[in-house]
């Protein structure tokens, strides 16, 4: 038995090697003809105007997610009709199938000409967080253009991606492009509140069809500009993981009483002390575990003395660098599980000692930790049995997607980034400190990449979910160009060709 099994293996190896050689030579021929038919990403001035006007129209539809079960369904329905008008070719092309999922999310299946190539997925989301009028230079749903910028909720998070993906596909189709590699486009409508009715349903649908993806690209990271003062060039971060999360409810129950004769400790006092202990005992700094270290080392050579020496010698300077990173609240979020007290409730009357006090703490879990580990640490910090812990929602950090030489999706993205943004010298892996719809797709691929091809400076960073969110017309055009090239690159990019002896 064992012997014949070995023979079958040997035969299989020979066949595989043979096939690999044949398919490689076919690929090479394919590549040449494909290169010849490559469509340049040049757009007429008329197309460029239409592009930005379409983005403005998208911003004007207030597709707000107000809460987990609270959507503006009128706006979401309107958005569905809007994309049909804005991208007519996408909707009438015979090799593209459109499906509305969960009523307001959209799945496009683009059938490529070569079924032997594994499909990929491009993602974005239609919904936005609320935007009160106060504090905005222009009304948040006006889509007004000012000084070369289009303003409005969703210009960076994430209608820019929704529109750029569909726009690029529309422009390719108008130029008669037929993709070789199949791909999907998934546009969720409730990303900001969970993805339960959008992304989760689309993922389930694709799983029921037995789909396996080569990779997927979602929002979640950017080309960072001006985050490191002494760094002249912007650098691109492809997020290969995202933080996990715990919503922890803390509750203290005590006997109720009259405020005229109070006990030594009240539910409010006990809970307040517990929350304060959590704030004063940050969870451990995990710098050195995870992709951030790799990227800092890549950046080292771009930085002046002495930062370059420090980053090139993390074996020595690791404690120093990790302390520096915790000083800024944004970089701090990259090196540890964060603790945020978000709700605190107790009491109903001025002269009644309340029987119960409750607080909610939101933890964002560093990829090197798990929900279980964080809960154990929290229990130790609280060190008070009167404080009950109830987890109301939790998920582990996302697995780390590969970013090595052989990681096709990662290398493809890197290739497209470097061709569209030649001034960007460093493309490195990172983590996403927020959450994206892509976390619902882990059964479809282990190659999940989060990257928005847009420059982001610290001011832009705070405009996301904040005030005066905006994108320059130029940056949006570049994003369309990026998607236009990425779709073609997915058909032609050969990646680092494996050597035969490695097989
Ligand atoms: C919902 O969207 C519609 C437009 O589609 C808009 O007229 C309406 O004001 C929005 N409602 C809320 C509460 O924002
Ligand atoms: C992944 O697949 C498993 C097994 O079929 C299933 O239980 C789980 O819910 C799936 N997860 C997601 C995120 O779809």
Automatic annotation (TrEMBL):
Choose any GO biological process term that the UniProt entry carries and state it: amino acid metabolic process
| Pathway where this protein functions | Lipid metabolism; fatty acid metabolism; Amino-acid metabolism
* Extent of the signal sequence: 1-25
Q: Which reaction does it catalyse?
A: N-(9Z-octadecenoyl)-L-tryptophan + H2O = L-tryptophan + (9Z)-octadecenoate; N-(9Z-octadecenoyl)-L-tyrosine + H2O = L-tyrosine + (9Z)-octadecenoate; N-(4Z,7Z,10Z,13Z,16Z,19Z-docosahexaenoyl)-L-phenylalanine + H2O = (4Z,7Z,10Z,13Z,16Z,19Z)-docosahexaenoate + L-phenylalanine; N-hexadecanoyl-L-phenylalanine + H2O = hexadecanoate + L-phenylalanine
| Domain of life per record | Eukaryota
Q: Which residues form the Peptidase M20 dimerisation domain?
A: 241-385
Q: Which UniProt keywords apply?
A: Hydrolase, Metal-binding, Protease, Signal, Zinc
Q: What is its EC number?
A: 3.5.1.114, 3.5.1.14
Annotated GO MF terms: aminoacylase activity; metal ion binding; peptidase activity
A GO cellular component annotation here is:
extracellular region
* Keyword Transport applies: no
Q: Which family does it belong to?
A: Belongs to the peptidase M20A family.
Annotated function: Secreted enzyme that regulates the endogenous N-fatty acyl amino acid (NAAs) tissue and circulating levels by functioning as a bidirectional NAA synthase/hydrolase. It condenses free fatty acids and free amino acids to generate NAAs and bidirectionally catalyzes the reverse hydrolysis reaction. Some of these NAAs stimulate oxidative metabolism via mitochondrial uncoupling, increasing energy expenditure in a UPC1-independent manner. Thereby, this secreted protein may indirectly regulate whole body energy expenditure.
Protein name in UniProt = N-fatty-acyl-amino acid synthase/hydrolase PM20D1
From the broadest rank down, the organism's phylogenetic lineage runs:
Eukaryota, Metazoa, Chordata, Craniata, Vertebrata
């Amino acid at each position: 038995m064992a012997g014949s099994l070995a023979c079958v293996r040997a035969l299989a190896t020979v066949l595989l090697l043979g096939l690999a050689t044949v398919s490689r030579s076919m690929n090479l021929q394919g590549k040449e003809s494909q290169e010849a038919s490559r469509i340049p990403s040049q757009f007429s001035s008329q197309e460029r105007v239409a592009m930005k006007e379409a983005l403005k129209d998208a911003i004007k539809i207030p597709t707000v997610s107000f809460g987990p079960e609270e959507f503006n369904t009128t706006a979401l329905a309107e958005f569905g009709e809007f994309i049909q008008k804005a991208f007519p070719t996408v909707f009438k092309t015979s090799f593209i199938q459109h499906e509305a999922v969960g009523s307001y999310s959209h799945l496009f299946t683009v059938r490529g000409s070569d079924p032997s190539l594994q499909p990929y997925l491009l993602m974005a989301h239609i919904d936005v967080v609320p935007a009160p009028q106060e504090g905005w230079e222009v009304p948040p749903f006006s889509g007004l253009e000012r000084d070369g910028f289009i303003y409005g909720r969703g210009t960076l998070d994430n209608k820019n991606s929704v529109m750029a993906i569909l726009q690029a596909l529309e422009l390719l189709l108008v130029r008669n492009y037929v993709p070789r590699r199949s791909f999907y486009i998934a546009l969720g409508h409730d990303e900001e509140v969970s993805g339960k009715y959008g992304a989760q349903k689309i993922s389930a649908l694709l799983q029921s069809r037995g789909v396996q993806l080569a990779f997927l690209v979602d929002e979640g990271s950017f080309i960072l500009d001006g985050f490191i003062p002494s760094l002249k060039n912007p650098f691109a971060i492809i997020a290969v993981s995202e933080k996990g999360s715990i919503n922890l409810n803390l509750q203290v129950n005590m006997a109720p009483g009259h405020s005229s004769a109070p006990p030594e400790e009240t539910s409010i006092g006990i809970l307040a002390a517990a929350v304060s202990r959590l704030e004063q005992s940050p969870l451990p700094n995990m710098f050195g575990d995870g992709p951030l270290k790799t990227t800092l080392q890549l950046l080292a050579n771009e930085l002046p003395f002495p930062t370059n020496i420090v980053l090139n010698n993390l074996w020595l300077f690791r404690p120093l660098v990790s302390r520096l990173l915790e000083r800024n609240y944004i970089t701090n979020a990259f090196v540890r599980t964060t603790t945020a007290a978000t709700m605190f409730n107790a009491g109903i009357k001025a002269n009644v000692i309340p029987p119960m006090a409750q607080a909610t703490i939101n933890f964002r879990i560093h990829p090197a930790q798990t929900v279980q580990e964080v809960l154990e640490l929290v229990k130790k910090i609280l060190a008070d049995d009167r404080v009950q812990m109830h987890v109301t929602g939790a998920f582990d950090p996302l697995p780390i997607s590969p970013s090595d030489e052989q990681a096709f999706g990662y290398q493809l993205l890197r290739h497209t980034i470097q061709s569209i943004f030649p001034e960007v010298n460093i493309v490195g892996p990172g983590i996403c400190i927020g959450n994206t719809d892509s976390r619902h797709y882990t059964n479809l691929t282990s190659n999940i990449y989060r990257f928005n091809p847009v420059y982001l400076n610290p001011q832009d960073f705070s405009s996301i979910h904040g005030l005066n969110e905006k994108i320059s017309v130029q940056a949006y055009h570049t994003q369309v160009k990026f998607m236009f090239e990425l779709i073609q690159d997915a058909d032609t990019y050969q990646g680092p060709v494996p050597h035969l002896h490695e097989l």
